[in-house]
Amino acid sequence: MEDNVVLLDCWASSFGMRVRLALALKGIKYEYKEEKLEDKSRVLVEMNPVHKKIPVLIHNGNPICESLIIVEYIDEVWHDDFPLLPSDAHQRSLARFWAAYADKLYGISKRLWMGKGGEQEKAKNELIECLKTLEGELGEKPYMGGEKIGFVDVALLPFSRWFYSLEKCANFTIKDECPKLVGWVDRCMEMEIVSNSLPHPHKIYGFVQHLKEKLGIA
Description:
The protein has about 220 residues and is α+β, with helices and mostly antiparallel strands. The protein contains 12 helices and 4 strands, in the order E-H-E-H-E-E-H-H-H-H-H-H-H-H-H-H. Helices cover about 55% and strands about 10% of the residues.
């Protein structure tokens, strides 16, 4: 029996990008359904009745929610193709820790692009501190996962699609602060399967501008 895989998602969501990237790396065919965040579909509400949020992966009729849980599920079910989590238990725990740490970027980034003045400056400093911590974990490795892309790379890389927007909103350059981390982003994006799975930063910036206009943020 062939797997039936459906993804409920929004193209600009960093959390949804995680799932799309994991599916692409595994070579899994799936049906993509774009959700309007301001007008959630009946299917989304039924499949994720607790949070009513994307992304939701539906595998043979069974919903899986929360991006990191979904990526782990994908890695466990399709474990023979491009394994993402390490085989060693301690290394797996470390990967889960850093993937969860990357979630901090969402709230900080939102406060940065929505904020003004001192609040925006505070968010910018928090962002830089967070990115420097992640850069420290990268160290001299080519990827967060070591010699190849792994679970932490999949968790973190989607947030890089928002870097350009954050730089434009707060007038700074992430490369000046975290050159090794930006080098890691460039290295990952050289892989065609990765670049084809994630939106261009300029498209994200257009999305951010639209949101700011809609929210009345100058």
